[in-house]
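Appendix C reproduces, verbatim, an entry submitted by the partner laboratory led by Prof. M.T., so that reviewers can inspect both the input and the predicted structure.
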Amino acid sequence: MSDKHLSTQFDSELNGVSSRVMELGGLVESQIRQAIYAFSQFSTEAADQVAEIEQRVNQMEVEIDRELSSIIARRQPTARDLRLLIAISKTTANLERVGDETTKIARMVKSIIASGSARALPSSDLRVAADLASGLLRKALDAFARLDTAAAVAILKEDDAIDKEFDGFVRKLITYMMEDPRTISASLDLLFLAKAIERIGDHAKNIAEFIIYIVKGADVRHVSMQEVESAVQ
């Protein structure tokens, strides 16, 4: 078998597993939309559907990992191809964790509904953060599909907006709890829900960092924005 034919087969396998990651990303996005709907409408039924999607997310993670292991064992890739496979593995893990966080949101929604305090709390503020986090993940997946480092850098900067929304929301919740101790239980549920939303933004940020790693070979985790921008130039 010619080297060219082997290369064509390998490219096809890489494209195939990349497509599976995008499929997983689409599934996780639908899970987030369902969770946001459950939260905005305080719908137990919608929250239950989030858990059903989670089972499919977990199964896809296992299947992609198995496929990646097979490709690495058979092809023994080097350089950028190996970076791509490593980044795909890490991206898959982050998408599965987004699914976990989304499932937490659904559980918190059900707990808030059961408490009977849902309408008395500043939940509309949190929906803004949820939309930001969902949008950030969508941008990260689009950037991953194009291996767009400029978009990746923009995502890293945008994650700060979600962090600021979270900090402001925490301060507001503390005020509610101080003014009316009866809201403490439901407020704590909202606090955990807010943290889950923030973590979705963090996972989108991680995916953006993997894009830079694939294209530039630079590990930009835990470095300053100035160092990130220098790495992609």
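The first helix runs from residue 3 to 41. Additional entries are available on request from the coordinating office.
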